[in-house]
Request: fold
Amino acid sequence: MTQYKMSFFLVCAAMMTPVHAQEVKQEKESEAATLGVNHVGFAVKDLDATAAFFVETLGWSPAGGRPDYPAKFVTNGNIFVTLWRVNDPENAVAFDRKNNVGLHHMAITVRDLDALNALHEKFKAHDGVIVEFAPEFLGNGPTTHMIIREPSGLRLEFIVPANRIK
Reply:
């Protein structure tokens, strides 16, 4: 630790009176112990097609994997997704959002309406993607969203929150 950092640390520690320390402790205790989603893991039928969808269609980056599992990891810099291939893809049971317990869908924030509409066009042109519904208002709007199923059948929602719509 540099002399400057040590001095700064000592000044901050000296300023932390017992009253301040108690306030910080109370704030931490009232805060939830969990901080956010670390990553989302999906079991998929077609590992390569699903990874390619995230990388080539959505513009995410590969972030490693485990060939022996087999698994591939992808990220957009904010969200980290792990993709695990099921043992027997030919006999895997597709998820049914109305009858199976499990992840209903994952919602991904989109930059703006132009980007949402551009994604919609990409999805329509992608052979392995099923568009459940095109961009539309969520409720009365202006938040706008759409839902698709990517090549392995995962339901993904793409959403532009009201505060991103001009």
